[in-house]
Design brief:
single chain; alpha/beta; TIM Barrel; Methyltransferase, Methionine Synthase (B12-binding Domains), Chain A, domain 1; eight-stranded parallel sheet; eight-stranded parallel barrel; 14% strand; binds CO-5-methoxybenzimidazolylcobamide; Cobalamin-bd; methionine biosynthesis; Cobalamin-bd_sf
Length: 792
């Protein structure tokens, strides 16, 4: 009999449909933990599983989606029961061809630095589920509904490290083809391939019609079988019930279209039922099955960006490497992370596609510094990284916590190097740089270097690393000591790319060590190497000469359609997020870049020149507005939004310390809250500080506060002014609800509202007493209510 891994790329594999919505139909109440039904209502789970088996599903998801220790206390018991029930259903249905999946969903928490869940803690949460599931007899692990690549990586590692079962993973993409944390098809699929998932795909969030264009993208780049489990269309509220808009026939129609795109596994998610799956199975069963073909694509990715090696040369920023850089050495020794982060941002802005990160100094603990730097750099830039180290421990730690699929610099032709580096590349997945040197040293002839490259390719293949993921470094040595060095490096690049069809890389600047005006040689050498087929150039992207050579090459080689990139760079004065030196950065820019320490320091400096509120209005709010706009237009993603918010908070803490506190006499008590469903509290916190500074006693109920809680506080504390904040169109309805409840139950209280999404007209419409456009406006209104006794 074929194994599951063999089956998935040779015949249709049908997945089951929704479990959660089925359980709700059977009486699962809102707020109840579905997984606890494994213990409380086993017969209902067996009944649902059997119905899906009857419908023709091969893969039955055990009821373990949220059975992790963030949500249930007895993980082992709940997982074991879930798997056993699914197995019992399979047995009782006499289905030899069906499999039970340990279903793993997200933890519901954000991973650091976005949230506070540590990466290794996330791995351990998933590992606990995997061990329990495998022991209970699951046939596969299905990680699903992943909306963050980092959490997906944690789950994949946990699965691969704790069982030998096939591991499938599916993501929840939105209509912009992005994960919540910004991941794209091109960034997450290669990462999953690298981490040795056995199949990848998409589930939930959208109906089959909306998924279609995303699936096309997945099938185009995936070498792994593709699974598609959509919702039964888009959700709609019918009374207090959520219903989905596709009939079984409509769902099957769209799934047939999807099947024709060349996917291998199909099933359903929210809103689908056994009858949906039955109609789908009957429709697709006889459709031609297309196996997925391996793709010759090489991707280096971060959590949201993907750089493809091959189609056009890639720029790798060399600035985060202490060799010959006094200031960087100092920053590394003194742990001045902000300096290093600004180096990363500068290179990104200058046009680097990937950033090299080398922190090797004899006197520092390289593994822990490398780990720290990778985390920190990834929290301010989405540029993919090249982990540059000869220290195997540093390499492993960095590969483990890196969010995406990195590049690794480097392995070489020495057996010892290959035997220590390749197992790590094999486990974590990365594109690796292979240096043309071995036990005999660096060959003087190109032909000998090419022989070493072949040896590296060959050994890599033994570890299951395809040649497409090995980028050969032809080794640029300085021409000041060997006049043949340039010729040999260029010949090596030429032979590797032409004869072996391989990818190549050069540390370009090495060519000119010891020479004056090095950039003259460097930029010419770069142009020459590019014409020989160089795939990746490690250069200083801040050097105008180097980027001029690079951009001109692209334009001349027809790699820059309509010379768009060239014109963008040189047609007008380029707009920059900040100037080329972090010394000149403004507070606004530091907040936009998410540089917390720099934002705090600049705030302290500004406080000597400007009034606190002026800083809030001129720097802090415009910075967040800009970030908000870029987020909305898909230029930035949630991680960057969060980092900017953190920087703004730190800046405001510094402002708060310095705010004058003249009016100490208590003028009155005010309740403040951000309304239910809304976690934006920066504005509300500013309002609070200002009201306090103007002598009011503020009871701050925090964010995401239920209407009932606000009402009860107002009543219990006998409050006469409430301030509500809301930042989202979706949460203004809760503001309205709160106001209605307050009018009903505490008619004496005055209500002021604020937040970027509101305006005076809207405030009136929802029956607020006052709209405060900013924090000072809230003070003026409080004065009116308490001092003049005349709130509108
Ligand atoms: Co989000 N976010 N965010 N966000 N975020 C907005 C609001 C958004 C407009 C960005 C965008 O898309 N352009 C958008 C809402 C779209 C809409 O509904 N119209 C949005 C979204 C969609 C989201 C998420 C859904 C993203 C996601 O997860 N996919 C998510 C929502 C989570 C949730 O609430 N359930 C989310 C999350 C976040 C972060 C956590 C990353 C972070 C918040 C961190 C925090 O607050 N602790 C964040 C941020 C920072 C923003 C932006 C960029 C900035 C908000 C801010 O702090 N502004 C924002 C875009 C924007 O507003 N331009 C955006 C600075 C602050 C000082 O201004 O709050 O307006 P503001 O307060 C002012 C005045 O309005 C007034 O005084 C303050 C000082 O002058 N004021 C009051 C405010 N409240 C008042 C109350 C008063 C009186 C005056 O009386 C009581």
């Amino acid at each position: 009999m074929k194994t599951l891994k063999e089956r998935i790329n040779t015949e249709w594999l049908f997945f089951d449909g929704a479990l959660g919505t089925m359980l709700q139909k059977k009486g699962l109440a809102a707020g109840q933990c579905p997984e606890m039904w494994n213990l409380d209502h086993p017969e209902i789970l067996i009944e649902i599983h059997k119905a899906y088996l009857e419908a023709g599903a091969h893969i039955i998801n055990a009821n373990t989606f949220g059975a992790n220790r963030c949500k249930v206390e007895n993980v082992k018991e709940v997982v074991t029961a879930g798997i056993s029930l699914a197995k019992q259903a399979v047995q009782e249905s006499h289905r030899q061809d069906a499999y039970v999946a340990l279903d793993i969903g997200p933890t519901g928490k954000l991973l650091a630095p976005m949230g506070d869940l540590d990466f290794e803690e996330a791995v351990s949460i998933f590992a606990e589920m995997v061990r329990a599931g495998a022991k209970a007899g699951a046939d596969l692990v299905l990680i699903e509904t992943m909306s963050d690549s980092y959490e997906a990586k944690a789950a994949l590692l946990a699965a691969k490290e704790n069982c030998d079962l096939p591991v499938f993973i599916t993501f929840i993409f939105d209509e912009n083809h992005r994960l919540l944390s910004g991941g794209s098809v091109q960034s997450v699929i290669p990462m999953c391939e690298g981490l040795k998932a056995d199949a990848v795909g998409i589930n939930c969030g959208l109906g089959p019609a909306q998924m279609l264009p995303i699936i096309k993208e997945i099938v185009q780049i995936s070498s792994l079988p593709v699974i598609v489990n959509p919702n039964a269309g888009l959700p709609r509220q019918l009374g207090n019930q959520t219903v989905y808009d596709l009939s079984d026939d409509e769902f099957a129609f769209w799934m047939k279209e999807i099947a024709a795109l060349g996917v291998q596994g199909v099933g359903g998610c929210c809103g689908t039922t056994p009858s949906t799956i039955k109609t789908m199975v009957q429709t697709i069963r006889n459709c031609p099955f297309l196996p997925i073909a391996p793709k010759k694509m090489t991707w280096v990715t971060s959590y949201s960006q993907a750089v493809q090696i091959g189609p056009k040369p890639v720029v790798i920023g060399e600035r985060i490497n202490p060799t010959g850089k006094k200031r960087l050495k100092e920053a590394l020794r003194n742990q001045e992370y902000e300096y290093i982060l600004s180096q990363a941002l500068e290179q990104e802005i200058a046009g680097a596609h990937i950033l090299d990160v080398n922190v090797g100094l004899p006197e520092i603990d390289e593994p822990s510094m490398m780990k720290e730097m990778i985390c920190q750099i990834q929290s301010v830039t989405a540029c993919p990284l090249q982990i540059d180290t000869g220290n195997i421990e540093a390499l492993e730690q960095a590969l483990r916590i890196y969010n995406g699929r990195p590049m690794v610099n480097s392995v070489n032709g020495k057996l010892e190097s290959m035997e220590s580096v390749f197992p790590l590349i094999q486990k974590y997945g990365a594109v690796v740089v292979g240096l043309c040197l071995d036990e005999e040293g660096i060959p003087e002839q190109a032909e000998q270097r090419v022989e070493i490259a072949k040896k590296i390719y060959h050994k890599a293949e033994e570890y299951g690393i395809p040649s497409k993921d090995v980028v050969i470094d032809g080794l640029a040595m300085t021409i000041s000591s060997s006049s043949q060095a340039g010729v040999v490096a260029l010949e090596t690049i030429d032979q590797i790319s032409r004869e072996l069809n391989g990818y190549t890389i050069l540390g370009v600047s090495n060519i000119s060590f010891g020479l004056p005006q090095r950039e003259i040689i460097n930029s010419h050498f770069l142009s020459m190497a590019l014409t020989k087929g160089l795939s990746c150039a490690i250069i200083n992207p801040n050097s105008e000469d180097m980027m001029k050579s690079y951009r001109s090459y692209l334009a001349l080689q027809a790699l820059d359609p309509q010379c768009k990139g060239y014109i963008e760079a040189y047609g007008t004065v380029p707009t920059q997020k900040f100037t080329d030196s972090s010394e000149n950065m403004t507070l606004k820019q530091a907040i936009q870049a998410g540089l917390k320490g720099r934002a705090e320091q600049l705030t302290l400096e500004l406080l000597n020149q400007k009034d606190s509120l002026e800083i809030v209005d001129a720097e802090l709010i415009p910075a967040l507005d800009q970030v908000g706009k870029e987020y909305e237009s898909g230029i930035l993603f949630l991680p960057q939004l969060l980092m900017s918010a953190e920087a703004a908070k730190l800046s405001f803490s510094a402002i708060k310390e310095k705010m004058p506190q003249d009016n100490k006499v208590a003028k009155g008590r005010i309740v403040l809250a951000t309304v239910q469903g809304d976690i934006h509290d920066i504005g509300k916190n500013i309002v609070k500080v200002l009201l306090e500074n103007y002598g009011y006693d503020v009871i701050d109920l925090g964010k995401d506060v239920a209407p009932e809680q606000i009402v009860s506080c107002v009543k219990n504390e006998n409050i006469s002014l409430v301030g509500l904040s809301a930042l989202m169109t979706t949460t203004v309805v809760n503001m309205e609800k709160t106001i209605r409840l307050l009018h009903e139950q505490a008619p004496h209280v005055k209500i002021m509202v604020g937040g970027a999404v509101l305006n005076p007209e809207y405030a009136k419409m929802i029956h607020a007493d006052h709209y405060a456009p900013d924090a000072m406006g809230s003070v003026r209104y409080a004065d009116q209510v308490f001092l003049k006794g005349q709130g509108e």
